[in-house]
Amino acid sequence: MKETPLSNCERRFLLRAIEEKKRLDGRQTYDYRSIKISFGTDYGCCIVELGKTRVLGQVSCELVSPKLNRATEGILFFNLELSQMAAPAFEPGRQSDLLVKLNRLLERCLRNSKCIDTESLCVVAGEKVWQIRVDLHLLNHDGNIIDAASIAAVVALCHFRRPDVSVQGDEVTLYTPEERDPVPLSIHHMPICVSFAFFQQGTYLLVDPNEREERVMDGLLVIAMNKHREICTIQSSESPSSPG
């Protein structure tokens, strides 16, 4: 099911408002929507609300064999899913271009920036390492999926605890939370994505576009930074809905 296109009247109204530095929800040009974070009963489970955009983050782990070329490093895996519950336009079971782009951007922002110390996930070099999997589910879509997803991923990773292990000879013992306290992940830094929508060939710029603003934008600039003011990734892309 395709999303209902905006009428020319709506499009003109939105663009005129942006030219006058006004937004439908009353925000200023560089205002972010309010962020609400709630936690589940399990470690590594959270829901992030960015305005009306909601993302569920869930971290899980398992002991696996390491990659051949990285014998002493654990594995970090990200998976974002867009369901029809979030917006009717998202087709179930289909890898859309948007989904592929979002997953790649998340991996660049979080895995390639080495925010998690993957060497601390090694249990037995060349044999057993922790694979940390971050599943992100979009529950409601009202624009700026990538920012909400990056916050949900970082929060879930910080909240997560893996089971403690001990190694004696060739034997690896896994402890339950009752036997030993679970262990937090070793986190170097926390990269967060901030999205800027631009309009009319970059004449106008907005932070944290909502769903309607995304429909009339010419393109999107995403910058991922941490508190040390280091740029972890940067990506500029043209909006599929932009003319030309």
From TrEMBL:
Compartments (UniProt record): Cytoplasm; Nucleus, Nucleolus
Gene3D superfamilies, sorted: GHMP Kinase, N-terminal domain (3.30.230.70)
Say yes or no: keyword Nucleus present. yes
**By its UniProt entry, which Pfam families does this protein fall under?**
RNase_PH, RNase_PH_C
Q: What are the Exoribonuclease phosphorolytic domain coordinates in residue numbering?
A: 32-163, 189-238
Assembly state and interactors?
A: Component of the RNA exosome core complex (Exo-9), composed of EXOSC1, EXOSC2, EXOSC3, EXOSC4, EXOSC5, EXOSC6, EXOSC7, EXOSC8 and EXOSC9; within the complex interacts with EXOSC3, EXOSC4, EXOSC5 and DIS3. The catalytically inactive RNA exosome core complex (Exo-9) associates with the catalytic subunit EXOSC10/RRP6. Exo-9 may associate with DIS3 to form the nucleolar exosome complex, or DIS3L to form the cytoplasmic exosome complex.
List the protein's name: Exosome complex component RRP45
Please tell me the species this chain comes from. Jaculus jaculus
According to the entry, what is the taxonomic lineage of the organism? Eukaryota, Metazoa, Chordata, Craniata, Vertebrata
Q: Gene of origin?
A: Exosc9
